């Protein structure tokens, strides 16, 4: 071959190399995005448009609290007060399930669990759902999953050999039914949607005490939960050919109306620049736990025992990234130290906490009159890993409500944990979660709807 090289061959060689190069470029379709819709924008019953920002936050605090409480290990003491709230989230995902006809609905986005389930038509115990439940019998692509399917975990079998599921949440909430496979479609814009065949999910026929964070009754529009945890049954793992077990996100600063965000998967999940990386702590729980060594306020290291953030042998404690939470939630002893130091920071400017008003947050101040000098401290989370410090700007630590502002970190009632980093404190960074590498990376970035 070499003896026959001519200028023509050289150009065809270049052409061949170019073609080879193009062929090895990662397939642009091997990735996708899920639109995260803030509940404040779509849940017109819980969040009517005429709510004040303070009232909106009252309800958001309730959602985040309910969510973090549902992560507790449930002991009889925890059942007081007996409210029938279940897992919730400040974000929902729109989806279509089935084919000819497909059923359009919303699912709660949950990065803290693996389970995806949807209430199915014909349920024995049902929660109210505007628009009705998924009419699986009408869909041309519905299949019940047999007991020997690899995703039939645990092997819970019907006498007919079908795979069953049964999930118990806190507060006596329960969902059970038939493990099934369907066509899932995630729309973004009208022209832009992506479909996946044979996605395994729970078709829920027995749903007891299910309320997605608030008693909505007939105004409920959420049909179930989409699990984006790290376990084998999660959507992340099932669609691993497209997700490559990685996703990235970048939340935009709060505004009204609240902006959409996206979860980017697979080749679309990117991080650039001088990013920092911290290892995921794996203990067989689908939640994204990391090692938090300490917290600083401005440059002052807070005297918090790091053991308060450690994931213990009985799986209590721990510190996790939780996009389904809005506010960050800290175990009580850690929160009290933070509160003390925030308070002493503002007392240096002669500012006292507001005590004579009922507010959704525990520590609030009057905004000083114009011209009076003061500053709002940043908060830094020091994670395991080289320089893995997440500096949260004061504008993401405090929220203004007209003439007052509040620390938007929530305390847990005890030290059981987990502590959760919520999405409102993730603003100003892009994050990449890589389950295969077992890492979370982050880099400062101000995103505009990306
Ligand atoms: C908001 O509007 C609803 C009717 O849409 C009304 O019932 C309610 O009182 C209003 N709330 C406020 C705070 O204005
Ligand atoms: C999956 O559902 C979408 C939306 O209804 C539809 O466009 C698509 O044809 C379906 N795919 C299959 C294989 O049935």
UniProtKB/TrEMBL annotation:
Residues 1-31 form the signal peptide. Keywords: Aspartyl protease, Glycoprotein, Hydrolase, Protease, Signal. The keyword ATP-binding does not apply. The keyword 4Fe-4S does not apply. It comes from the Eukaryota. Gene3D superfamilies: Acid Proteases. Residues 91-443 form the Peptidase A1 domain. PROSITE patterns: PEPTIDASE_A1 (PS51767). Belongs to the peptidase A1 family. This is Peptidase A1 domain-containing protein.
